[in-house]
User: Fold this.
Amino acid sequence: MNEWVEKLALCVERGKVNRDAPWPPDMKGQDGADELAAAALQSGCSPDEVLQGCILGMDRIGKKFSENKAFVPELLMSAKAMTAAMNHLKPYFQSGEVKRKGTFVIGTVAGDLHDIGKNLVAMVAEGGGFEVIDLGTDVSAEKFLKAVDEHPGCVVGISALLTTTMVNMEKVIRTIKEKHPETPIIIGGAPVTQAFADKIGADGYSPDPQGAVEFLNKKVA
Amino acid sequence: MNSFERFRNRLKGLPVDRVPNFDIFMQFAAHFIHAQLRDYYLNYRVLVDANLAVIEAFAIDIAQAISDPYREAHDLGLKVEFPQDALPLATEPLLKDPSDLNKLKLARPEDGRRMNDRLEAIRLFRERVGGQVPIMGWVEGALAEAADLRGVSTLMMDIFERPDFVADLLEFCCEQEVLFAKAQMEAGADIIGLGDAVASQISAEWYQQYALPYEQRIFDAVHKAGGTARLHICGNTTHLLEGMAASGADIVDLDWMVDFRHAAEIYEPNGPALCGNFDPVAVMLQGTPQQVEEAVRRCIADGGPRCFSAAGCEIPDGTPHENLHTQMRALAL
Assistant:
């Protein structure tokens, strides 16, 4: 593996944002994802390789999170490091030189303002190589449908933290599937189960971000 | 045997006529008496009426003044909206900048609109069922309160990037919660529940540093005032079980993801009593009465001789009454 890819992956996995960042203490004073991404591109690495470093790092931390070996703060820090590296790739995404695996439209369902779970999935999906369209919280079925209209071929993710709002997911699925029956939809959130997902016609369910990315990878394969 | 005697005996491992039911009710209770949630959150009389109705209907063994996480934060200045029949909304953190902490002053619970409303609820419970049903007040853990004031994600990043600020914030929150816990004890609470939900999202090492010491201080104040301490951390706390036992809690709630038998092996015979832990959604809200009966009985069998029965978290709004009646029947020994 390219040395830059591995170095960058390590920074993303450990949440080392830049040289000045105090975290993690054992990497104090070392270059972070920000400097490494810039240096990698300057030294002739392809943007795809830089993206690969981000994907690898987020994949590792996402798996640790699934296995209860890493927790929300570590995941947030990795996402921050990933974003620092990805900022250097923006021009390449815009020019089309680097392509995303696909588009993921995500939002918290109508009536629900909780965003942590949704944000974590969005971050890990972005780190997994997907363009993420984050619709925010309290998202109506109509707003989800509009986003699917605007992003043909996308995958949709719906989040809910509350038992009182998870029931609103069914309407979103029905609304999208009526017009775009081929659009894959995955749901998640603390009260959501596979049985509930089956009952309301979702195509997938995941209890954690990594499972959502695996679902995305299958759907664009 | 009344609910108070049942609670006291069970905690000591003495005989009881049935396992105490410590289910947590909030939205369900409000709607059970056809009240709107705004009134439940803002008017202690509605909260008390709703909980007494639920106690009566489903043989619940605890009168609880828990409602939402924002009582302390609201009195400290957090802007909270109360829609007519929905959960309270807090969209802007109070501490947008770390320097905002310097402007915060501890709020006297008696002077606060919403903290005082909870004190009134406890006084009214005392008047109506004191000595017959244990009365539970509620506080946020210091970490949970810090998250209410700063925002969960921001606070998590602060721990990495501004540890000194986090230490100051947790100190402030802890002092506020100790004040509130003491005031609720003086108002007549028998039990103080402490909610520290965000703690399930951090590692055991961080729990030891950022949650446990403050839980210990709050529970120490509860014990000095003669109260019983109940720790409630929603979510998967398997990795925190040893730490939670060190909090000083007399009762530890466990959510459904935690192996109740494994926890009982760690906690019995000298640790905290366990409370839980069937799935509130898959079992209570969506399950059949038969599934409820099986789950309730399995928890009692797994939880040890001092365990209390409850769903892993709040009984969801819309739970079929038959499922709560089934839990009631299943608890008879």
User: Anything to note?
Assistant: Chain B has a mean pLDDT of 96. DSSP finds 15 helices and seven strands in chain B. The radius of gyration of chain B is 19 Å. The interface with chain A takes residues 27, 86-87, 89, 91, 152-153, 156-157, 159-161, 201-203, 206, 234-236, 238-239, 280-282, 285-286, 316-318 of chain B (CB under 8 Å).
